[in-house]
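Protein in question kept underneath.
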Amino acid sequence: MLTRHSLSGAFLALVFTASGMMAQEKSKPSRFNFFRRLGERDRVETLIITGNFGRSRLLAELAQEKRKHPILMISPEAGQRDDVYFMPTRPEAFILPESEFIDYVEFLKPKRVVVLGDESYVPARYLDQLRASSVQTIVLNSKDWNKNAEALANLINYLALPRIYGGYVTKLELSLGGHYVPSGAPAIPAAPAAVPATVPPASMMAPIMLD
């Protein structure tokens, strides 16, 4: 499984629009203060939740670049645990305790949550918490990520998204193996591997896993 260190810095900067984000350890009160300030300025229209893998993260960040939607990124770690990154459009990303996942979703009070990917991207325990909450949740879980891009484009009114996303996916596939493999092709395993590189406790960008 490849990590972000396998990609050149130039290509990574081109593809992943939030490549400057930094993971910071913060106390629970300071995180809630950040959300409170966010809530005072802007009502969250759409919260995107997805896994920290190539196609899913690319789609989420392209949508964020255009529409400024915050992202919750689930990054599987060793020992069957997850790091959950909150990625606002500003200022910097930081890690949330997995146990407080639904608390932060409900604190943000988004008008809707859009989950990108099936349970291999966002594990069932997170989906169960969302379904038990009062938050409207839409799951885009096609094995064909071009279809997910089309569905997300209609939801957020960004009709150019599938074309832009498809262009970046082509470049990404070519940069990895020299061969373009269409999203959803039968030869591609549907589920991403769940053993990403670990993240140091501070000042390190979340790892990018390539599914």
